[in-house]
Design a protein that fits this description.
Mean pLDDT: 93
Strand content: 15-25%
CATH class of the largest domain: Alpha Beta
Number of helices: 13
CATH architecture of the largest domain: 2-Layer Sandwich
Shape: globular
Order of helices and strands: HEEHEHEEHEHHEEEHEEHEEEHHHHH
Oligomer: single chain
Low-confidence stretches: none
Number of domains: 2
Protein backbone atom coordinates (compact mmCIF):
# COMPACT_ATOMS: atom_id res chain seq x y z
CA UNK A 1 0.00 0.00 0.00
CA UNK A 2 1.02 3.61 -0.48
CA UNK A 3 0.83 6.13 2.36
CA UNK A 4 -2.41 7.91 1.33
CA UNK A 5 -4.18 4.59 0.81
CA UNK A 6 -2.84 3.33 4.14
CA UNK A 7 -4.42 6.40 5.71
CA UNK A 8 -7.75 5.69 4.02
CA UNK A 9 -7.61 1.98 4.93
CA UNK A 10 -7.05 2.87 8.58
CA UNK A 11 -9.87 5.43 8.60
CA UNK A 12 -12.40 3.00 7.13
CA UNK A 13 -11.43 0.28 9.59
CA UNK A 14 -11.45 2.64 12.59
CA UNK A 15 -14.95 3.83 11.69
CA UNK A 16 -16.13 0.25 11.02
CA UNK A 17 -17.37 1.27 7.57
CA UNK A 18 -19.14 -1.54 5.70
CA UNK A 19 -20.15 0.34 2.52
CA UNK A 20 -18.38 3.00 0.48
CA UNK A 21 -19.99 5.47 -1.90
CA UNK A 22 -17.34 6.14 -4.54
CA UNK A 23 -18.21 9.48 -6.15
CA UNK A 24 -17.05 12.02 -8.69
CA UNK A 25 -18.74 15.29 -9.58
CA UNK A 26 -20.08 15.70 -13.10
CA UNK A 27 -20.13 19.09 -14.80
CA UNK A 28 -23.51 19.98 -13.31
CA UNK A 29 -22.39 19.17 -9.76
CA UNK A 30 -24.34 15.91 -9.50
CA UNK A 31 -22.48 13.09 -7.75
CA UNK A 32 -21.93 10.08 -10.01
CA UNK A 33 -20.33 6.80 -9.03
CA UNK A 34 -20.81 3.41 -7.43
CA UNK A 35 -21.62 1.93 -4.03
CA UNK A 36 -19.34 -0.92 -3.00
CA UNK A 37 -18.78 -3.12 0.05
CA UNK A 38 -15.73 -1.88 1.91
CA UNK A 39 -13.73 -5.06 1.28
CA UNK A 40 -14.29 -4.79 -2.47
CA UNK A 41 -13.39 -1.10 -2.42
CA UNK A 42 -10.15 -1.77 -0.54
CA UNK A 43 -9.26 -4.62 -2.88
CA UNK A 44 -9.83 -2.59 -6.05
CA UNK A 45 -8.49 0.70 -4.63
CA UNK A 46 -11.05 2.79 -6.43
CA UNK A 47 -13.32 2.27 -9.39
CA UNK A 48 -13.71 2.73 -13.11
CA UNK A 49 -16.41 4.78 -14.77
CA UNK A 50 -17.04 5.71 -18.39
CA UNK A 51 -15.78 9.23 -19.02
CA UNK A 52 -19.14 9.94 -20.64
CA UNK A 53 -20.80 10.27 -17.22
CA UNK A 54 -19.16 13.69 -17.01
CA UNK A 55 -21.10 14.83 -20.09
CA UNK A 56 -24.53 14.15 -18.62
CA UNK A 57 -27.03 16.96 -18.19
CA UNK A 58 -29.18 17.63 -15.12
CA UNK A 59 -31.92 15.55 -16.78
CA UNK A 60 -29.55 12.59 -17.21
CA UNK A 61 -29.34 13.03 -20.98
CA UNK A 62 -26.09 13.16 -22.91
CA UNK A 63 -24.85 15.79 -25.33
CA UNK A 64 -25.42 15.33 -29.06
CA UNK A 65 -23.46 12.58 -30.79
CA UNK A 66 -21.31 14.95 -32.86
CA UNK A 67 -19.77 16.63 -29.81
CA UNK A 68 -19.95 13.42 -27.73
CA UNK A 69 -17.72 11.42 -30.09
CA UNK A 70 -15.52 14.41 -30.82
CA UNK A 71 -14.63 14.84 -27.14
CA UNK A 72 -14.59 11.19 -26.06
CA UNK A 73 -13.01 7.98 -27.28
CA UNK A 74 -15.42 6.33 -29.78
CA UNK A 75 -15.20 3.12 -27.73
CA UNK A 76 -16.54 4.98 -24.65
CA UNK A 77 -13.63 3.73 -22.55
CA UNK A 78 -13.41 3.93 -18.79
CA UNK A 79 -11.54 6.51 -16.78
CA UNK A 80 -9.59 5.44 -13.70
CA UNK A 81 -11.04 6.87 -10.48
CA UNK A 82 -8.62 7.00 -7.57
CA UNK A 83 -9.81 7.71 -4.00
CA UNK A 84 -8.68 10.93 -2.33
CA UNK A 85 -7.48 9.94 1.14
CA UNK A 86 -8.36 13.26 2.77
CA UNK A 87 -11.78 13.55 1.10
CA UNK A 88 -13.65 10.85 2.99
CA UNK A 89 -16.80 11.54 5.02
CA UNK A 90 -19.16 9.46 7.11
CA UNK A 91 -22.83 9.33 6.09
CA UNK A 92 -24.68 9.84 9.40
CA UNK A 93 -28.15 9.12 7.97
CA UNK A 94 -27.23 5.73 6.49
CA UNK A 95 -28.59 2.57 8.12
CA UNK A 96 -25.30 0.69 7.67
CA UNK A 97 -21.95 2.36 8.53
CA UNK A 98 -21.26 4.09 5.22
CA UNK A 99 -18.75 6.63 3.93
CA UNK A 100 -18.50 8.93 0.92
CA UNK A 101 -15.09 8.85 -0.74
CA UNK A 102 -14.44 11.51 -3.37
CA UNK A 103 -12.29 10.35 -6.29
CA UNK A 104 -9.90 11.97 -8.72
CA UNK A 105 -10.12 10.87 -12.35
CA UNK A 106 -7.37 9.87 -14.79
CA UNK A 107 -7.06 8.30 -18.22
CA UNK A 108 -5.29 4.97 -18.75
CA UNK A 109 -1.95 6.78 -19.07
CA UNK A 110 -2.34 8.55 -15.73
CA UNK A 111 -3.26 11.97 -17.16
CA UNK A 112 -5.96 13.97 -15.33
CA UNK A 113 -9.35 13.91 -17.05
CA UNK A 114 -9.92 17.40 -18.47
CA UNK A 115 -13.70 17.26 -18.07
CA UNK A 116 -13.49 16.59 -14.32
CA UNK A 117 -14.58 19.65 -12.29
CA UNK A 118 -12.21 18.70 -9.46
CA UNK A 119 -9.33 18.53 -11.92
CA UNK A 120 -10.30 21.94 -13.31
CA UNK A 121 -10.00 23.45 -9.84
CA UNK A 122 -6.69 21.66 -9.23
CA UNK A 123 -5.37 23.10 -12.51
CA UNK A 124 -6.23 26.64 -11.40
CA UNK A 125 -4.68 26.09 -7.96
CA UNK A 126 -1.47 24.91 -9.64
CA UNK A 127 -1.26 28.27 -11.44
CA UNK A 128 -1.15 29.96 -8.03
CA UNK A 129 1.38 27.46 -6.68
CA UNK A 130 3.68 28.11 -9.63
CA UNK A 131 3.72 31.80 -8.62
CA UNK A 132 4.38 31.01 -4.96
CA UNK A 133 0.82 31.90 -3.95
CA UNK A 134 -1.95 30.03 -2.14
CA UNK A 135 -5.57 31.18 -2.41
CA UNK A 136 -7.82 31.10 0.65
CA UNK A 137 -11.60 30.99 0.26
CA UNK A 138 -14.63 31.19 2.53
CA UNK A 139 -17.93 30.23 0.86
CA UNK A 140 -21.39 31.26 2.02
CA UNK A 141 -24.24 28.92 1.08
CA UNK A 142 -27.82 30.20 0.84
CA UNK A 143 -30.80 27.88 0.44
CA UNK A 144 -34.52 27.63 1.08
CA UNK A 145 -36.47 25.23 3.25
CA UNK A 146 -39.83 24.46 1.64
CA UNK A 147 -42.79 22.19 2.05
CA UNK A 148 -42.28 18.92 0.21
CA UNK A 149 -43.94 19.18 -3.19
CA UNK A 150 -44.46 16.29 -5.59
CA UNK A 151 -45.91 18.36 -8.45
CA UNK A 152 -43.27 20.52 -10.20
CA UNK A 153 -46.05 22.65 -11.72
CA UNK A 154 -47.05 23.94 -8.29
CA UNK A 155 -45.24 26.88 -6.63
CA UNK A 156 -43.16 26.14 -3.55
CA UNK A 157 -44.42 27.10 -0.09
CA UNK A 158 -42.63 27.85 3.16
CA UNK A 159 -42.76 24.94 5.64
CA UNK A 160 -44.24 25.02 9.12
CA UNK A 161 -41.74 25.52 11.92
CA UNK A 162 -41.99 24.58 15.60
CA UNK A 163 -44.80 27.07 16.13
CA UNK A 164 -47.02 25.23 13.67
CA UNK A 165 -47.17 28.27 11.41
CA UNK A 166 -45.58 28.79 8.01
CA UNK A 167 -43.34 31.83 7.80
CA UNK A 168 -44.65 34.80 5.84
CA UNK A 169 -43.04 38.12 5.04
CA UNK A 170 -39.31 38.66 5.26
CA UNK A 171 -37.33 38.07 8.43
CA UNK A 172 -33.72 38.79 7.52
CA UNK A 173 -31.35 37.96 10.43
CA UNK A 174 -34.29 37.05 12.70
CA UNK A 175 -33.19 34.74 15.52
CA UNK A 176 -36.75 33.63 16.22
CA UNK A 177 -37.35 32.77 12.56
CA UNK A 178 -34.16 30.69 12.45
CA UNK A 179 -35.09 28.98 15.72
CA UNK A 180 -38.32 27.76 14.14
CA UNK A 181 -36.19 25.01 12.62
CA UNK A 182 -33.93 24.28 15.59
CA UNK A 183 -34.44 20.48 15.56
CA UNK A 184 -33.43 20.33 11.91
CA UNK A 185 -30.32 22.45 12.33
CA UNK A 186 -29.28 20.56 15.47
CA UNK A 187 -29.09 17.51 13.20
CA UNK A 188 -27.28 19.48 10.50
CA UNK A 189 -24.57 20.69 12.88
CA UNK A 190 -24.25 17.28 14.54
CA UNK A 191 -23.96 15.51 11.20
CA UNK A 192 -21.52 18.06 9.78
CA UNK A 193 -19.35 17.76 12.90
CA UNK A 194 -19.20 14.00 12.38
CA UNK A 195 -18.21 14.63 8.77
CA UNK A 196 -15.55 17.18 9.66
CA UNK A 197 -17.20 20.00 7.72
CA UNK A 198 -15.99 23.46 8.80
CA UNK A 199 -19.33 25.18 9.34
CA UNK A 200 -19.39 28.58 10.95
CA UNK A 201 -22.51 30.71 11.40
CA UNK A 202 -26.18 30.11 10.61
CA UNK A 203 -28.19 33.11 9.42
CA UNK A 204 -31.81 33.57 8.47
CA UNK A 205 -31.78 35.25 5.08
CA UNK A 206 -34.31 37.60 3.49
CA UNK A 207 -36.79 35.11 2.02
CA UNK A 208 -39.31 33.01 4.00
CA UNK A 209 -37.41 30.03 5.45
CA UNK A 210 -34.34 31.11 3.47
CA UNK A 211 -31.14 30.31 5.35
CA UNK A 212 -27.41 30.87 4.99
CA UNK A 213 -24.63 28.74 6.40
CA UNK A 214 -21.09 30.10 6.25
CA UNK A 215 -17.95 28.02 6.04
CA UNK A 216 -14.72 28.92 7.80
CA UNK A 217 -11.98 30.14 5.47
CA UNK A 218 -9.49 27.59 4.26
CA UNK A 219 -8.06 25.58 1.37
CA UNK A 220 -10.05 25.97 -1.86
CA UNK A 221 -10.06 22.31 -2.91
CA UNK A 222 -10.96 21.08 0.56
CA UNK A 223 -13.85 23.53 0.80
CA UNK A 224 -15.16 22.58 -2.65
CA UNK A 225 -15.24 18.96 -1.43
CA UNK A 226 -17.01 20.06 1.75
CA UNK A 227 -19.68 22.05 -0.09
CA UNK A 228 -20.36 19.07 -2.34
CA UNK A 229 -20.95 16.90 0.73
CA UNK A 230 -22.82 19.63 2.65
CA UNK A 231 -25.47 20.15 -0.02
CA UNK A 232 -26.39 16.48 0.14
CA UNK A 233 -26.24 16.45 3.95
CA UNK A 234 -28.54 19.47 4.13
CA UNK A 235 -31.08 17.85 1.80
CA UNK A 236 -31.02 14.61 3.80
CA UNK A 237 -31.49 16.43 7.12
CA UNK A 238 -34.43 18.33 5.67
CA UNK A 239 -36.09 15.13 4.48
CA UNK A 240 -35.70 13.63 7.95
CA UNK A 241 -37.79 16.55 9.25
CA UNK A 242 -40.36 16.24 6.46
CA UNK A 243 -39.33 19.38 4.58
CA UNK A 244 -37.17 19.98 1.53
CA UNK A 245 -33.97 21.99 1.16
CA UNK A 246 -33.27 23.51 -2.24
CA UNK A 247 -30.15 25.18 -3.60
CA UNK A 248 -31.97 26.30 -6.72
CA UNK A 249 -30.90 29.86 -7.55
CA UNK A 250 -34.44 31.29 -7.79
CA UNK A 251 -36.98 28.79 -6.45
CA UNK A 252 -39.75 31.28 -5.60
CA UNK A 253 -40.74 33.97 -8.08
CA UNK A 254 -41.22 37.00 -5.86
CA UNK A 255 -38.55 36.18 -3.29
CA UNK A 256 -34.77 36.71 -3.26
CA UNK A 257 -32.56 34.17 -4.95
CA UNK A 258 -29.93 32.00 -3.30
CA UNK A 259 -26.22 32.60 -3.80
CA UNK A 260 -22.90 30.97 -3.07
CA UNK A 261 -20.81 34.04 -2.24
CA UNK A 262 -17.08 33.35 -2.38
CA UNK A 263 -14.71 35.34 -0.17
CA UNK A 264 -11.20 35.02 -1.58
CA UNK A 265 -7.72 36.14 -0.60
CA UNK A 266 -4.16 35.03 -1.32
CA UNK A 267 -1.15 34.32 0.88
CA UNK A 268 2.53 34.00 0.02
CA UNK A 269 3.51 30.34 0.35
CA UNK A 270 7.06 31.08 1.51
CA UNK A 271 6.11 33.50 4.28
CA UNK A 272 2.51 32.51 4.98
CA UNK A 273 1.58 36.20 4.92
CA UNK A 274 -1.39 37.69 3.04
CA UNK A 275 -0.49 39.67 -0.08
CA UNK A 276 -3.67 41.72 -0.49
CA UNK A 277 -2.61 44.47 1.96
CA UNK A 278 0.54 46.58 2.09
CA UNK A 279 2.52 47.19 5.28
CA UNK A 280 0.46 50.29 6.04
CA UNK A 281 -2.78 48.29 5.82
CA UNK A 282 -3.95 49.71 2.50
CA UNK A 283 -4.98 47.62 -0.49
CA UNK A 284 -1.97 46.25 -2.33
CA UNK A 285 -1.40 46.57 -6.05
CA UNK A 286 -1.84 42.80 -6.40
CA UNK A 287 -5.23 43.05 -4.69
CA UNK A 288 -6.41 45.78 -7.04
CA UNK A 289 -5.21 43.75 -10.02
CA UNK A 290 -7.05 40.72 -8.62
CA UNK A 291 -10.25 42.79 -8.59
CA UNK A 292 -9.48 44.04 -12.09
CA UNK A 293 -9.21 40.46 -13.32
CA UNK A 294 -12.54 39.58 -11.77
CA UNK A 295 -14.14 42.56 -13.50
CA UNK A 296 -12.68 41.71 -16.90
CA UNK A 297 -13.17 37.95 -16.96
CA UNK A 298 -16.32 37.25 -14.94
CA UNK A 299 -18.49 37.91 -18.03
CA UNK A 300 -16.50 35.20 -19.82
CA UNK A 301 -17.00 32.56 -17.12
CA UNK A 302 -20.51 33.51 -16.00
CA UNK A 303 -21.94 30.07 -16.95
CA UNK A 304 -19.73 28.60 -14.21
CA UNK A 305 -21.42 30.92 -11.69
CA UNK A 306 -24.90 30.84 -13.24
CA UNK A 307 -25.13 27.39 -14.87
CA UNK A 308 -28.88 27.12 -15.45
CA UNK A 309 -31.72 29.04 -17.08
CA UNK A 310 -33.13 29.59 -13.60
CA UNK A 311 -29.81 31.08 -12.45
CA UNK A 312 -30.40 34.23 -14.47
CA UNK A 313 -33.73 34.89 -12.76
CA UNK A 314 -31.71 35.71 -9.65
CA UNK A 315 -29.99 38.72 -11.20
CA UNK A 316 -32.53 41.40 -10.33
CA UNK A 317 -31.94 44.86 -8.82
CA UNK A 318 -32.99 45.51 -5.22
CA UNK A 319 -32.83 41.83 -4.22
CA UNK A 320 -29.29 41.80 -2.76
CA UNK A 321 -28.20 40.07 -5.96
CA UNK A 322 -25.50 41.49 -8.21
CA UNK A 323 -26.40 42.91 -11.60
CA UNK A 324 -22.93 44.24 -12.38
CA UNK A 325 -19.21 43.64 -11.93
CA UNK A 326 -18.59 46.91 -10.13
CA UNK A 327 -16.63 46.82 -6.88
CA UNK A 328 -16.80 48.79 -3.67
CA UNK A 329 -15.91 48.74 -0.01
CA UNK A 330 -18.63 47.45 2.33
CA UNK A 331 -21.19 47.72 -0.49
CA UNK A 332 -23.74 44.97 -1.11
CA UNK A 333 -25.11 46.55 -4.29
CA UNK A 334 -21.97 45.66 -6.26
CA UNK A 335 -20.93 42.30 -7.65
CA UNK A 336 -17.50 42.50 -5.98
CA UNK A 337 -17.62 43.60 -2.35
CA UNK A 338 -14.58 44.35 -0.19
CA UNK A 339 -15.70 43.79 3.42
CA UNK A 340 -14.31 45.89 6.24
CA UNK A 341 -11.51 43.86 7.83
CA UNK A 342 -8.06 43.92 9.34
CA UNK A 343 -5.17 44.05 6.84
CA UNK A 344 -4.48 40.34 7.39
CA UNK A 345 -8.07 39.53 6.38
CA UNK A 346 -8.19 41.78 3.29
CA UNK A 347 -10.34 39.99 0.74
CA UNK A 348 -12.93 40.37 -1.99
CA UNK A 349 -16.36 38.77 -1.91
CA UNK A 350 -17.54 37.55 -5.30
CA UNK A 351 -21.34 37.83 -5.09
CA UNK A 352 -22.07 36.50 -8.59
CA UNK A 353 -22.14 32.70 -8.06
CA UNK A 354 -25.51 31.10 -7.40
CA UNK A 355 -26.18 28.34 -4.90
CA UNK A 356 -26.87 26.05 -7.87
CA UNK A 357 -23.31 26.35 -9.20
CA UNK A 358 -20.91 23.42 -9.14
CA UNK A 359 -18.61 24.43 -6.23
CA UNK A 360 -15.47 23.13 -7.93
CA UNK A 361 -16.15 25.14 -11.07
CA UNK A 362 -17.41 28.29 -9.35
CA UNK A 363 -14.34 28.48 -7.10
CA UNK A 364 -12.04 27.62 -10.03
CA UNK A 365 -13.56 30.34 -12.21
CA UNK A 366 -13.47 32.98 -9.48
CA UNK A 367 -9.85 32.27 -8.63
CA UNK A 368 -8.83 32.13 -12.29
CA UNK A 369 -10.31 35.56 -12.97
CA UNK A 370 -8.39 37.03 -10.04
CA UNK A 371 -5.19 35.25 -11.08
CA UNK A 372 -5.43 36.63 -14.61
CA UNK A 373 -5.81 40.11 -13.19
CA UNK A 374 -2.65 39.66 -11.13
CA UNK A 375 -0.48 38.30 -13.95
CA UNK A 376 -1.89 40.68 -16.59
CA UNK A 377 -1.76 43.64 -14.17
CA UNK A 378 -5.35 44.63 -14.93
CA UNK A 379 -6.44 47.89 -13.34
CA UNK A 380 -9.95 47.89 -11.82
CA UNK A 381 -12.49 50.61 -12.37
CA UNK A 382 -13.00 53.20 -9.65
CA UNK A 383 -14.69 51.85 -6.53
CA UNK A 384 -18.41 52.59 -6.39
CA UNK A 385 -19.65 54.81 -3.59
CA UNK A 386 -23.30 54.31 -2.68
CA UNK A 387 -26.01 52.47 -4.57
CA UNK A 388 -24.88 50.54 -7.65
CA UNK A 389 -28.02 48.68 -8.73
CA UNK A 390 -28.63 51.15 -11.56
CA UNK A 391 -25.16 50.41 -12.95
CA UNK A 392 -26.25 47.30 -14.77
CA UNK A 393 -22.99 46.54 -16.49
CA UNK A 394 -23.44 45.85 -20.19
CA UNK A 395 -20.46 43.48 -20.14
CA UNK A 396 -22.42 41.03 -18.00
CA UNK A 397 -24.50 38.63 -20.15
CA UNK A 398 -28.18 38.63 -19.21
CA UNK A 399 -29.16 35.25 -20.72
CA UNK A 400 -27.52 31.85 -20.59
CA UNK A 401 -27.31 31.77 -24.39
CA UNK A 402 -25.26 34.97 -24.44
CA UNK A 403 -23.14 33.78 -21.53
CA UNK A 404 -22.28 30.47 -23.21
CA UNK A 405 -21.33 32.26 -26.42
CA UNK A 406 -19.00 34.61 -24.56
CA UNK A 407 -17.41 31.69 -22.73
CA UNK A 408 -16.68 29.61 -25.82
CA UNK A 409 -15.33 32.63 -27.74
CA UNK A 410 -12.84 33.69 -25.04
CA UNK A 411 -9.41 32.40 -26.08
CA UNK A 412 -7.87 33.23 -22.70
CA UNK A 413 -10.34 31.09 -20.77
CA UNK A 414 -9.91 28.25 -23.25
CA UNK A 415 -6.13 28.47 -22.93
CA UNK A 416 -6.21 28.14 -19.15
CA UNK A 417 -9.13 25.75 -18.65
CA UNK A 418 -8.58 23.68 -21.79
CA UNK A 419 -10.43 23.35 -25.09
CA UNK A 420 -11.98 20.03 -24.14
CA UNK A 421 -13.42 21.34 -20.89
CA UNK A 422 -14.84 24.53 -22.40
CA UNK A 423 -16.42 22.67 -25.34
CA UNK A 424 -17.81 19.96 -23.08
CA UNK A 425 -19.23 22.36 -20.51
CA UNK A 426 -20.84 24.59 -23.14
CA UNK A 427 -22.29 21.51 -24.88
CA UNK A 428 -23.86 20.22 -21.66
CA UNK A 429 -25.40 23.58 -20.84
CA UNK A 430 -26.69 24.06 -24.38
CA UNK A 431 -28.27 20.61 -24.31
CA UNK A 432 -30.03 21.52 -21.05
CA UNK A 433 -31.25 24.79 -22.53
CA UNK A 434 -32.62 23.04 -25.62
CA UNK A 435 -34.47 20.65 -23.31
CA UNK A 436 -35.86 23.59 -21.33
CA UNK A 437 -37.13 25.34 -24.47
CA UNK A 438 -39.30 22.32 -25.28
CA UNK A 439 -41.24 22.69 -22.01
CA UNK A 440 -44.50 24.66 -22.05
CA UNK A 441 -44.84 26.57 -18.78
CA UNK A 442 -47.91 27.01 -16.59
CA UNK A 443 -47.72 30.77 -17.31
CA UNK A 444 -48.19 30.09 -21.02
CA UNK A 445 -51.16 27.82 -20.37
CA UNK A 446 -52.68 30.29 -17.91
CA UNK A 447 -52.48 33.43 -20.03
CA UNK A 448 -52.26 32.25 -23.64
CA UNK A 449 -54.36 29.10 -23.87
CA UNK A 450 -57.76 30.80 -24.25
CA UNK A 451 -56.73 34.43 -24.66
CA UNK A 452 -54.78 34.76 -27.90
Amino acid sequence: MNAPFDQLFTWLKDHKITEVECVVSDLTGIARGKIAPTNKFLHERGMRLPESVLLQTVTGDFVDDDIYYDLLDPADIDMVCKPVADAVYVIPWAIEPTAIVIHDTFDKFGNPIELSPRNVLKKVLQLYTDKGWKPIVAPEMEFYLTQRCEDPDLPLKAPMGRSGRAESGRQSFSIDAANEFDPLFEDVYDWCELQGLDLDTLIHEDGPAQMEINFRHGDALDLADQITVFKRTMREAALKHNVAATFMAKPIGDEPGSAMHIHQSVVDIATGKPIFADADGTMSELFLHHIGGLQKYIPKVLPMFAPNVNSFRRFLPDTSAPVNVEWGEENRTVGLRVPTSSPDAMRVENRLPGADANPYLAIAASLLCGYLGMVERIEPSAAVQGRAYERRNLRLPITIEDALTQMEECETIERYLGNKFVRGYVAVKRAEHENFKRVISSWEREFLLLSV
